[in-house]
Amino acid sequence: MALFAVPNIIQDLIPAAASESINPWTWNLNLNASGLYEYLPTMHALSKFALLGACAVQSVMGLPEPVESREANLLKRNVDDWINRETPIAWQKLLCNIGPDGCAVRNQGVPAGVVVASPSRSDPDYFYTWTRDAALVYKGLADAFRRNYTEGLHTQLKNFVSSQAKLQGVGNPAGGLNDGQGLGEPKFMVDLKEFTGEWGRPQRDGPPLRAIALIRYAKWLVENGHKAVWPTIENDLKYSAQYWNQTGFDLWEEVPGSSFFTIASTHRALVEGAQLGAVLGKPTRAYTAVAPQVLCFQQSFWNAREGFVVSNINGGEWRRGRDANSILASIHNFDPSAGCDANTFQPCSDRALSNHKVVVDSFRSIYNINRGIAQNKAVAVGRYSEDIFYNGNPWFLATFAAAEQLYDALLVWKAQGSIAITQTSLPFFRDHVSGATVGTHAAGSATYNQIVSAITAYADGFIEVASKYAHSNGAMNEQIDRNTGQPIAAPDLTWSYSAFLTATARRDGYIPTGWGAGQATALPAGQCQKFEVAGNYNLPPTPVFPSNLTPAANAPVEQITAVPTGCTNPEKVFVTFNERASTSWGQVIKVVGNVPELGSWDVNKAVPLSASKYTSGDPLWSITLPIQAGSSVQYKYIRITNGVAGVSWEGGDNRAFSVPGATCDVQNRWDNWR
């Protein structure tokens, strides 16, 4: 008898050869040469004894295996064995948390394509859908789908597109869709109604992450002759271009400020969105203009003196900043085309490796379950060392992320045939190869071979740590008790299973298609600019997919590669509205006018200006808007207090100007409140 019922979507991945039940504890889900998943038997106990016996004979015959190699081989076999058992369980558990038919949410009002964070309804209550969690889960599903087409995964992705198109129109405490601010709402009821309770809002990582997940699927659609997802993606890209430089809560929903994870995700979304938009013939100038400034700002999180990313700035100074936030940013922005680029924080970059060491080391002494573990061995990883949520514990997803970054690095090192060590990354490497030196070490050299062997074992060690603390039936909670090692907090956290699947996919050698990072590593000349471009938001239509949408014959593996540069649509002239107006906390300055881009005098569609340049000495509000070339514009500024009910119009006549003909030059309007 099978230990659990294999879900239909997983059965889609299994060849119809076995009439007996598939036992996940003795069968392994592998990708065969034809690009199809198949279950292969794992090594039986007798085979293991035979192999151990062979090792013993080798030792007796005077050919002892080095201790390090023997330990690494044993670790690999243990990790292989657990992955073999855990993979189908993780798939089942993840899909159980997705509506409408997931086994944990069935008949509980969860629409199709909606990810429930955890079935837990108390201590903690995670029976909600978070935009961030759902996006990361579906990003993984989209990459798995591109790796291996199945009808089950395809249905899931189409359901996600439809659910998110609807969700974007749901008004909520963060705002509505008119000015895009409602897209920053972090969580909703599972039936897609607004959540009105107190919460850390806005959270600005949700829109770029959702855009990334949808783009992964949209690229496949384009390659196979269909274009159905852009309106939903476009709203999230517009939000990212408009609000990237405004503070919000971090991904742990605790600290208001600027989050490294959010900024890195925003940069990727804008670059990959421009890449897709160019192929679809959509305006992309806002994304290509803003993305370099986002990347420029991303560099300000780096603490060069101590060699790590300060994960939250402009808020949360009570934390040191050593946070799994940064490791998650690295793995979710992985693109081998960028090599080991430090600006985009690629996993094998010297900064990312130094940061990996500092973050992981911050947990070595504070958790009892990590005590006594050698410096070059993996440990359980938490969110950040000052964490007090449930007494502050390791998390499964953070531990898997630590492994995934190392697997990513190994993939790039092997592909480029060398490993570069700088003064920044040297401490990381010397933890594992004491004789490592600064320089470039070519494949085949002793140092290269030692590093690859040591880091492979180190990465596997994090998987082994997670396996040690998972439930015996393969279930994983959110956290691991720091003292006892018991899995605690939210049971069956969807993100935990997704993190396992993406980490082990990298271990298996699977590299997802790129996002254009290799063309987006350059920083703008001079100082970073606080350049934000507003957009007009529209409720996406209900997506319609052809009934026969299947992979096209001979479809390319990756067709959408070029990232547009320069001024791509000069007929939309960039106009920057600069208004000096002193305000009190909670007040916002908006601009409204006679053209559609300015809301056609509808106060509800007025465009909010950004206070990112505001100081007590210079109360400057500003925003850039693409306006149709040749338009005759009339406009005024309004001050909003406590919503639309508190509108104050500036005095005097309407302001007016004429937009020039098509141009790539930014037009500035400099005004003072009157």
Automatic annotation (TrEMBL):
One Pfam family matching this protein: Glyco_hydro_15
UniProt keywords, alphabetically: Carbohydrate metabolism, Glycoprotein, Glycosidase, Hydrolase, Polysaccharide degradation, Signal
Domain CBM20: 567-674
UniProt EC number: 3.2.1.3
Chain segments annotated as coiled-coil in the UniProt record: none
Keyword check for Signal: yes
Catalytic activity entry: Hydrolysis of terminal (1->4)-linked alpha-D-glucose residues successively from non-reducing ends of the chains with release of beta-D-glucose
InterPro entries per UniProt: 6-hairpin_glycosidase_sf (IPR008928), 6hp_glycosidase-like_sf (IPR012341), Carb-bd-like_fold (IPR013784), CBM20 (IPR002044), CBM20_glucoamylase (IPR034836), GH15-like (IPR011613), Glucoamylase (IPR000165), Glucoamylase_active_site (IPR046966)
The UniProt record lists the keyword Lyase: no
Family matches, as CDD domains: CBM20_glucoamylase
SMART domains in alphabetical order: CBM_2 (SM01065)
PANTHER family (UniProt xref): GLUCOAMYLASE, TREHALASE
Family the entry assigns: Belongs to the glycosyl hydrolase 15 family.
Name by which UniProt lists this protein: Glucoamylase
